[in-house]
Amino acid sequence: MISTIHDVLDAHTQFVITTHVRPDGDAIGSQIALAQYLTKRGKEVAMINSDPAPSNLGWLPGSENIETYRGGARQIKKIAGADVIIVVDTNAAHRLGEVGEVVKNSTAQKILIDHHTQPESWFDHTLVNDRASSTGELIFDLITETDKNLLDKSISTALYVAILTDTGSFRFSSVTAHVHTIVAQLLEKGVEPAEVYGLLYESKSIHALRLLGRALDTIRILPDGKIGYLTVTIAMLQETGATSEDTEGLVTYVQALEGVEVALIFTEVSNGTKVSFRSKGEWHVHKWARSLGGGGHRNASGAFLKLPLQKAIRTTLESASQFLPLSIEDASETPSAEDEAYLLLLQASREE
């Protein structure tokens, strides 16, 4: 796969790189690293996304060159004039947001570099491994296949951010010996882990911390003891002065609870509810998310339901037993009314 991708890169000059809506560290880090690599090879590269990079990634060298798609003639012309369009860290047109249809309908060759499951079929070439820790891992392999000397501190820092963020600071099951080998090589190029971590995770606003306090009060553990969730409402954001960016990472507090194998966060938005799924080990959540119209990785997925918050929670939890190895025998001796209703749902689904 890599050799085919390199053949395409060698043969063309004009490139556009894009990624998914609400881009995270893996999306932005992979995009910047690939753009800088191609630029060093004498290519002309534009980075165009539907959404801007989150504020905690604005320090990354090269982030200032990412354009937010506005549908103007100049950007449409740039996309239409590209020889090659590369999509990183997502594999579906709708996940690209407003730029998605423009990209999909372009006459340019289209390359997908991604580690999600079930990619759409409209890509001409793919570099896909759903076992990879991150798209950043795949970009590293692509770059070093030809010339490791093209790695510099800037590219290495972008790749380090990509891998660090998508592995939960190297604590997910996707972390392998190969991942640590990659990181060792990135550190040799001058990446400074303490500085990167501080810039990513230690620059929260007082509003974000107030939201954290409110969100922690909403944590619920279901009677099986394996699933936990928290909720964020529009009112909570308004009352704390926090933004949607400040919800990133909240789900990890649920995942850190003893005995919890699957953690969810339900975020209320104006037109529905966003659901983020995180899981440990062999507790895979991508099929569960897909059943609700979403998708993602085995241990990290998401979905959007055009339902009000409470109905979205009920709809999601009702389907849990279809996708997870739950045991209702683990239930608490004194479940709440909500927990009793959940148990009945699980029991009914197993009896059908």
Set out the fold topology.
Blueprint: H1 2-11, E1 14-18, H2 25-40, E2 44-49, E3 66-68, H3 73-80, E4 84-88, H4 100-105, E5 109-114, E6 125-128, H5 135-144, H6 153-166, H7 177-188, H8 193-201, H9 206-216, E7 220-221, E8 227-232, H10 234-240, H11 251-255, E9 262-269, E10 272-279, H12 286-291, E11 295-296, E12 300-305, H13 309-318, H14 337-351
Parallel strand pairs: 1-2, 1-4, 2-3, 4-5, 5-6, 8-9
Antiparallel strand pairs: 7-8, 9-10, 10-12, 11-12
Please explain how this structure is put together.
The chain is an alpha/beta fold and 352 residues long. The chain has two domains: 2-201, inorganic pyrophosphatase (n-terminal core), CATH 3.90.1640; 206-351, Roll (Diaminopimelate Epimerase, Chain A, domain 1). 39% of the residues lie in helices and 17% in strands. Helix 2 runs parallel beside helix 5 (135-144) and helix 2 (25-40) packs antiparallel against helix 6 (153-166).
